[in-house]
User: Which sequence fits this backbone?
């Protein structure tokens, strides 16, 4: 290797180090797998218990809710969503903290703060829009809206972490748009987006970035 080639390699190494230091790379792929599992459990519980074993199509069921306006059923749906979200969040924090410790880096870095702030802002806006849909009795569009806003938030934070997350983001957005057309299968699309897609993404990320480093 000539001196010029060595200089080029050194510059590439420095550039890579600078890029890595400006990104949050402690997000665990296994946390994505767990988040997907929690989402599938939540979707299954909703389908078999809250929706009476799939007795009604999702669209028809949600429209019937606007007519019945049953507080108990609405609270059940909110509780399931809250439990799934908290479970996924806690598992993500615990596993990412463990990964950061193994890497010898801080979990709560400036980049991590920016990532959380921007993602929280996107999800909050999406949540507010979903509440507006619920207020107007358009519950059948909630599954589509949550997938789209979540996908957009992932695309937005890709600049702070692994670029691969953009693929998941675009997949969620596309699935959400399709869910907006086939309203009768909202619970299925929700399970695919938040469940299966997360599991596949988590496995790919683990094999790509974590298994070799373990």
Assistant:
């Amino acid at each position: 290797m000539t001196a010029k080639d060595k200089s080029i390699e050194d510059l590439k190494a420095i550039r890579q180090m600078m890029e890595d230091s400006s990104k949050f790379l402690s997000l665990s792929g296994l946390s994505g797998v767990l988040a997907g599992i929690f989402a599938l459990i939540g979707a299954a519980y909703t389908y078999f218990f809250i929706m009476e074993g799939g007795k009604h199509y999702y669209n028809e069921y949600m429209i019937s809710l606007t007519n019945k306006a049953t507080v108990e059923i609405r609270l059940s749906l909110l509780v399931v969503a809250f439990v799934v979200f908290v479970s996924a969040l806690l598992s993500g924090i615990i596993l990412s903290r463990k990964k950061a410790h193994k890497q010898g880096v801080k979990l709560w870095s400036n980049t991590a703060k920016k990532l959380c702030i921007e993602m929280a802002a996107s999800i909050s806006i999406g949540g507010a829009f979903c509440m507006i849909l619920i207020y107007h009795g358009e519950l059948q569009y909630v599954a589509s809206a949550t997938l789209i806003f979540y996908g957009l938030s992932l695309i937005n934070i890709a600049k702070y972490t692994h670029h691969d997350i953009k693929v998941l983001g675009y997949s969620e957005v596309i699935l959400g748009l399709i869910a907006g057309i086939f309203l009768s299968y909202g619970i299925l699309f929700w399970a695919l987006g938040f469940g299966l897609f997360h599991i596949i993404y988590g496995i790919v990320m683990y094999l790509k970035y974590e298994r070799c480093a373990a």
Observations:
- Residues 71-103 form the longest helix (33 residues).
- Confidence is low (pLDDT under 50) at residues 16-21.
